[in-house]
Amino acid sequence: MSASQIMIMAFTINFKCALVFVVAIPLLFVGVIFIMLVSIPLFKKVQAALDRVTGLTRENLTGVRVIRAFCREEESVNEFEISNTALTKLNEFVGRISALLNPFIYVLINIATVILIAKAGVQVNLGAMQ
Question: Looking at the Swiss-Prot or TrEMBL record, what is one Pfam family this protein matches (predicted)?
Answer without folding.
Answer: ABC_membrane
